[in-house]
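Interim report, section 4.2 (structural modelling).
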Amino acid sequence: MAGDVRPAPPGDRSEARITRLVQISFIAALGALWWLATNVWGMSPILLPKPQNAFSELLDILGSGEFWPDLLLTLGELAGAFAISMTLGVTIGFLVSQSPTYVRVFEPLLAGVYAVPIILFLPLYVLFFGLGASSKIALGATISFFPIVLNTIAGFTSIDKLYVTAAKSMGASPTILLRHVLIPGALPIILSGLRMGFTVALLSIIGSETIASLAGLGHRIVNLAESLEIGRMFAYIVFVVVIAASLNAVVSRLEARRSLDP
Amino acid sequence: MRARAPITGFMARHPRLSQLATIALFLLVWEITARFFVDKMFLSPPSRVYSEIDRVLNTKGLMQALTLTLYELSAAFVIAVAIGMAIGLSVGLNAFARRCFMPIILLLYGIPQIVILPLFILGLGIGPPSKIAFGVTHGIFPIILAIVAGVQNLKPVLLTSARSMGANRWHVLRYVVLPHMMPSFFSGLRLGMTGVLLGVLLAELYVSTAGIGYFTGLFTQNFDPTRLLGLISILAAMAIALNEFMRTVERRFSRWRGND
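Predicted structure of the assembly:
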């Protein structure tokens, strides 16, 4: 049991192949279990649709293109929320990071609010902004603001003072200092804040669409659940999961690439 | 650093006081906005929320709702810790299992779980079981990841020496593996608690007949921002208290390691 806990040496190709095989067979076993439960053991199709039905529904959704309005709305809300939280988060984070005093005063306050599950404020946002897109944008912007602002503060304060002093003593103007020292130094941490912010913005937007809304991907899933079109709902769930996973993958890739740049 | 303006100098000398002043300023702006600029159907001033907090607590059934939500939280947390530990240990202690299943676990963790919330309601009904289950699926992943992280950098020499001194499996687990993973275990517990809280609250807000989600919905539909804000403040205070409690526990149990 506790025998082999060392990280395995990478690059062992037959090991890697076995690993891949186990992963694939694990997923295949889950799929087989799904098929058996619905087709052979007669599990209620209201709880779990047959995989072949869900698949044909997925093909139908993709073929008919009926997902476009919901998808565009959700992505639009995401873009709006992220634009707001990125602008405010990076700006406020930069301003706070300008003085150690500001950091000492404001950083604990921001971190304290971050500990509250902001999803609690959703009813309030619905009260203020209604059931439409604006309440989702506002909630998504609020939730994603905190990781962005905290990481921006952390990014700018993590820069070695020596670099700043050196640049200044060599006569760098504030613009040059910002362009060539501060921004490159803080960028990796800010980017990881932006990635976290993006992920939670997506989550909270789909979440608030699920809980209280008139349209959007989250709303579509709830609608299908309520009309017991479970096969189609599963297809939409798969669709949303794939969209979310690929958006996250793109953002992580962007983060990794920019952070490696000098 | 030389103070550039009187206000910065004040902040430097009294950071605590400045924080309180910031909060007071925020409340003041809120108070003025609510009193003079916004329809009172939508926003209540903080003074009114505070003075009428007993009206919130006296709402029929609200105390039971808070109790029910706390029960859902604790049940979900206990289950998430138990299953998370079992999966975390069985995946983390074996390098092969770790390589096979960690990518799958990370993949699942990345899914926005909110999309499967309707399934939980369909399968488990609108009562506490669906909330507990949804809390478990949110809380379990941080716990698994923390436990795997905690056991995977265990020094092999510790295991070898324990075994050479005649420790059996149970002894190794109890006296080597468990103390070693304590710090990351407790940070996993804290993150797990955050996840459980998120899952239970999401499920409560989505559909609820007796929990706090029912009351937030009720107050929203009645345009009663005083009680809505009161209830949200109570819940936020609970969340902060839980978080601080977990942080204290985390610090206490990681202390023995010192700074190694």
